[in-house]
Structures are given as structure tokens and as C-alpha cells.
Specification:
This protein is of the alpha+beta class. It is built from seven helices and three strands. Strand 1 and strand 2 form a beta hairpin. It is found in: Membrane.
């Protein structure tokens, strides 16, 4: 509509009420488990009260940008690297809640916060890869040891059964000879009676 402004007493300030995208540059942070990382993100916000945005803060966009930077550093400093890498959504929601509570009096509504990228030093990446490989090898050794233990229990039970039946031992001996004859035809096997072994 038509707005009348008195030149000496009134001031006209145009306020954009559309959603603004604020790109947070990479921030150097120290996680809770003392690992340095560079994290950048994006904040989407809009002005819902033009009077508050003009009257309560000098430059609402600069203030929101600086607050987003410091909030990103503060919130991520309370997280471990595993939480940061696995829980992007939870971290983004906590940053959004902190920003909303701080910018509400400025007439700002933060619509969304996204963490774009988490970069860790190359040496730390190598150390984490070596740690993961060692953990996988340890799990493989545990599985192999459990298999050996189960096999030894089965052999013990089989030996108890074969000890109770001498004919069963003779049959197992002949079965082993048949298996050898099928696999290696060039092998010559001289069967000995089990009684001679006793």
C-alpha cells in the first residue's frame, strides 16, 4: 500500500520476510574426546517480526550469522567424534533449539540447521582405520577360538562314543581310508588292524 514518510522524523527500513540461507564456514572444533575437526553447516532462518528485527538488534543477519558460528562450536564441543559422525540429525536439532531460544527476541525463527561436512586430519583418519582393522582382527580371532573350542568339544564327545564301541572305531577307520582313496588316487594305503595298534 501507500506509506507516507516525513523526511525529518521518520525512517524507512525495508525488511525481507523470506527465508534466508546462512552458510557457516568451516569451524575448527575440539570434540569431547580431544579430536580436532573442521565442521561447516547451513542455517535456514526467516524474520517473523520485522519490528523486533529492526528495533532489538543493529544488524539482524550479521548477529544471526555470528551466533550460528559460536553455537556450532559450543554444541559440537560437547559431543564425541563418534556421536558427531553418527548423529548428524540430533546435533542439528540441538543447535536449532539453541539458536531459536537466542534469536526469538530478535524476531528470527530458525527453520532448519544442517551439518554439511565433518573433516578430520589425515593422520587421525589413518589411526582410526588402523584401530578399526585391529578391532576386526580381534573379533575374527575370537570367532576362530570359539570354533576351535566347539570342535574340541565335539571331538571329545566323539572319542567317548568311539571308546564305548570298538566296532565303531573300526568303521571310522575304514571311512577315513575310503575318503583318502577318493581324494588321492596315487596314495597307497596299507590298512592295519586296530588290534595291532593296541
Amino acid at each position: 500500500g501507500l506509506v507516507l514518510i516525513l523526511p525529518c522524523t521518520d525512517t524507512f527500513i525495508k525488511v525481507d520476510l523470506r527465508t534466508v540461507t546462512c552458510n557457516i564456514p568451516p569451524q575448527e572444533i575440539l570434540t569431547k574426546d580431544a579430536i580436532t575437526a573442521q565442521v561447516d553447516g547451513v542455517v535456514y532462518y526467516r524474520i517473523h517480526s520485522a519490528v523486533s528485527a529492526v528495533a532489538n538488534v543493529t544488524d539482524v543477519h550479521l548477529a544471526t550469522f555470528l551466533l550460528a558460528q559460536t553455537t556450532l562450536r559450543n554444541v559440537l564441543g560437547t559431543q564425541s567424534l563418534a556421536q558427531l559422525l553418527a548423529g548428524h540429525e540430533e546435533v542439528a536439532h540441538s543447535i536449532q533449539a539453541v539458536l531459536n531460544s537466542a534469536t526469538e527476541q530478535w524476531g528470527i525463527k530458525v527453520a532448519r540447521v544442517e551439518i554439511k561436512d565433518v573433516r578430520i586430519p589425515v593422520a587421525m583418519q589413518r589411526a582410526m582405520a588402523a584401530e578399526a582393522e585391529a578391532a576386526r582382527e580381534a573379533r575374527a580371532k575370537i570367532v576362530a577360538a570359539e570354533g576351535e573350542m566347539n570342535a574340541s568339544k565335539a571331538l571329545k564327545q566323539a572319542s567317548v562314543v568311539l571308546a564305548e564301541s570298538p566296532a565303531g572305531l573300526q568303521l571310522r577307520y575304514l571311512q577315513t581310508l575310503a575318503t583318502l582313496a577318493a581324494e588321492n588316487n596315487s596314495t597307497i594305503v596299507f590298512p592295519l588292524p586296530i588290534n595291532m595298534l593296541e
